[in-house]
Amino acid sequence: MVMNPNANSDAVVLARTAPFRLGMVQVDPANCLIRDSAGQEQVIEPRMMQVLVALARAKGVIVTRDELIASCWAGRIVSNDAVSRVISHLRLLAGGIAAGSFQMETLPRIGYRLTVQEGEGAEAPSTDIVPDAVPASLPMAEVSRRGVIAIATGGVVLLAVGARIGWPSAGSTDRLLIINPLAIEGRDHALEVIGRTTSDALRSDLAHVPGLRLSGPAGKDEKDRTGGADYRVDGSVARIGQDGLRLSLTLTDAGSDQQLWSGSIDAAMAGISDLQRDLSAALIEQLVLRLPVASTPPTSVAMRGDPEAYRLSEAARLLCDDVRDLFLAGQQDAAQDSADRAVALAEQSLALAPENPGGLIVMADLTRNGWSHAITARKLTTQQRVDQALPLLRRALRTDPANAGAMVRIADLYRRFSWRWDDAATLFRHAIVNDPANADAHWAYSHLLATLGDVVAGLDHGLTLKQLTDTHLWHRITLPRLLFMAGYEGAAMKLYYQELGNRPNSYFLLYEIYYLLVAQGNRTGLQAYVDRLEKGGQTDAATAWTIGRCRAALAAMAGRPEALLVILDAELARYDAGGLALATIGGRARDDLTFILAIEYACAGQYDRAIDLLGRALQAMSVYWLPSLPYGSAPFPPAMQRDPRFQALWKRDVRLADAVARRGRAAQAKQMSTALPDSSMSKALLPAPLLARLHAAFPGLPIS
């Protein structure tokens, strides 16, 4: 008997579901197997197969989240994130072995729909009993042979099972770490106890780090035993004054005896557990940076711990997405109110489980971005907020050393606020291996790659991001930004205007299109933008503000900068007086505004003021508008570039100079668009597979 395709809540029983065709692939639910027309096979996790069957049997009808939970989770209480992550992995499947067979569509706050690609057929899944059906879970040997896609189910993260089960294993490439006893000053019994408990705590924490094996300690006369070791941890415990304590650790390359890192923390004797926790977290961060990026995710199960703490942290995380959306829409008050609710939920979560990664990550996000009223009232600098967010993320990584969310956020702090380019790239790669469906990892990594000039690689991650999610504006504008930096201006503007059609009064989007054209010195494009806005008939404040600013910039381009300077001088005065005191303004970090103002003052011919503002932006580590960095496609005016003060800006920090040098090499390799001496623009050289992905994602887009 064939199942009723409208019975979306009926339970999906894989062992009783016959194989069926979906587009160009054959789906075998009982074996959790996808097979393409060339005979290639991929095993997927049972829950993922259940959701695929539930959506396929609906034959293009929308399936609500509640219906999916009823049919695939037996109606149990599961988080929104559990469902969303399965959908994300199905998007990856649709772009991988099942490319061209079906598409996944998310309808925010409604449900999901699977549609078969035009011109391809599909069969309805059937509940006919399959002869000799095998259990939904495959034998371990079969799982090991084929590999399983990583998904999260009901708050328990099940990472992919690759060619080897568990770690370490015989013949593995795991790095060997020796933990030596901590040195104690004098004969102090209390310190000896602290030293032993600290060593035990380190060993316990480090045992969970993927790619690492522990050994030792080696005795003083047993140096030969350390010959095969890769790293060595040493440390000491000492008293400071009457009640103080200092705990110090060093990480050393065991082969060369070169010290790689050292850290120490001082605290009161009563706070020894927090001391051990924080120093262990910092050590794990350093080790993860040095361990090779695996080719497959680690085999581990990260339990969510207290279910109520998990539920609260997930609710807070979803609120943070709303906060970002509200800021992008220019609704500052509503955004801060939502941030306050997110803080309250995260605090409740951490009260129940102080080390749960979800709660720690949410608190780090709220702190770093300065979103809530309480954080804004403290008037912290950007660096102060970052300094408070980083320990929270390290604690999350200590609890779960394979946590992609913590890795992504630490990496983004490296990228955005300390210009540690290579360390950021390493963590992004770890995160993507550990969780291929982590949208934020692909989003932030694409920005890092573009910062260093590798826009081609950034586009690859941007397309994966589109496969995973298309809900939030900050994700959706990634591809038009990257296409613009690759030199495909027509395609970029088409996508920008599509977004503007969906969000006609988005202050963030209206402003970005404006300064993109101003930075480019594109009078024709800017006039067309004004005409489009006026023709659209929007009467909201954001559109009126944008039209006025565009007209002032057009006049400045024609040699009449007075109107634009009135706007800019007033805005800069407000900025300097603290009138724009929020850490996040219109969806942008406060420090990024000085970079944009530098672009606008340059448009007005005020190069002294522009250089000063650009210097302030770089001092605050903002390289916000990447096309205007050296070798970009929207450079500052030639007269300004010739100024020695401008040239000195890019040399005063070795990390920034390194980024500029990499961008120069990338421009030569045609990995990005760059302005040529004759005022023409080169285009990035896009490989054929990437072009094919772009055409598949955006049919009819002018890319060639």
How many beta-strand runs? Answer: 17
Radius of gyration: 27 Å
Count of the domains: 4
- Computed structural class: alpha+beta
Query: What characteristic shape results from the CA principal axes?
Result: globular
Low-confidence parts lasting 5 or more residues at pLDDT below 50?
1-6, 127-171, 218-226, 300-304
| Span between termini | 49 Å
Give structural notes:
With 704 residues, the protein is of the alpha+beta class. The protein has 4 domains: 14-154, Winged helix-like DNA-binding domain superfamily/Winged helix DNA-binding domain (Arc Repressor Mutant, subunit A, Orthogonal Bundle); 175-290, TolB, N-terminal domain (Rossmann fold, 3-Layer(aba) Sandwich), CATH 3.40.50.10070; 303-436, Tetratricopeptide repeat domain (Serine Threonine Protein Phosphatase 5, Tetratricopeptide repeat), CATH 1.25.40; 445-697. The strands form 5 sheets. Strands 9, 10, 11, 12, 13 and 14 form a 6-stranded mixed sheet that branches. Residues 1-6, 127-171, 218-226 and 300-304 have low confidence and may be disordered. The longest helix has 22 residues, at 307-328. The chain is built from 28 helices and 17 strands.
Outline:
By secondary structure, the protein is of the alpha+beta class. The model is unreliable at 1-6, 127-171, 218-226 and 300-304 (pLDDT under 50).
